[in-house]
Design a protein that fits this description.
By secondary structure, the chain is mostly helical. The chain has a domain at about 25-50. About 65% of the residues lie in helices and about 0% in strands. It has two helices and no strands. The chain is flat. About 0% of the residues are buried.
Amino acid sequence: MVRKLEGDRTSRYRERQKAQGLRKVCIWVPAEDVERVKAYVARLRKKRATK
């Protein structure tokens, strides 16, 4: 029963995120590019926040 409740919470969270126009993206990045990707994501988030 607990697992079902936890799954419901997760699905509600995902629904809220989708309603905000967000999509989950998981990617594998070479270790040397991690910081560059983090900086890029931060720029995207900042750009989205100013809209």
